[in-house]
UniProtKB/TrEMBL annotation:
It comes from the Bacteria. It comes from Desulfotomaculum nigrificans (strain DSM 14880 / VKM B-2319 / CO-1-SRB) (Desulfotomaculum carboxydivorans). InterPro entries: Rib_uL2_dom2, Ribosomal_eL14_KOW, Translation_prot_SH3-like_sf. This is Ribosomal protein L14E. Keywords: Ribonucleoprotein, Ribosomal protein. One of its GO terms (cellular component) is ribonucleoprotein complex. The keyword Nucleotide-binding does not apply.
Length: 96
């Protein structure tokens, strides 16, 4: 698990393992250092108010949304509907 911590990057798929949101999937918006990241799902946790999560309380998936990563790198505005669709695309590929 420790080896994955450095690998977390914007657009990465994560799921919560602790707290009231356990089992919920998110995409990482940014890393805060000190083992914390900001996450959003575009629905319950919008882009305008991302959730701060400790990496110890997240399962880190090896999938990254390239579209979201590109938007964040270009510093263009990211909408909640875009995040929701990126997340839905990734989750559908997991279930297949």
């Amino acid at each position: 698990m420790q080896g994955l911590v450095e690998e977390v990057r914007p657009g990465q798929l994560v799921s919560s393992t602790q707290g009231r949101d356990a089992g919920r999937y998110y995409l990482v918006i940014s890393s805060l250092g000190d083992n914390f990241v900001l996450v959003t799902d575009g629905e319950f946790r919008g882009v305008e108010k991302p959730k701060k999560k400790n990496l110890k309380h997240l399962k880190i998936w090896p999938m990254v949304s390239e579209k979201m990563q590109d938007k964040l790198a270009a510093q263009s505005k990211l909408t909640n509907s875009e995040v929701s669709s990126y997340l839905a695309d990734m989750l559908s590929s997991i279930q297949e």
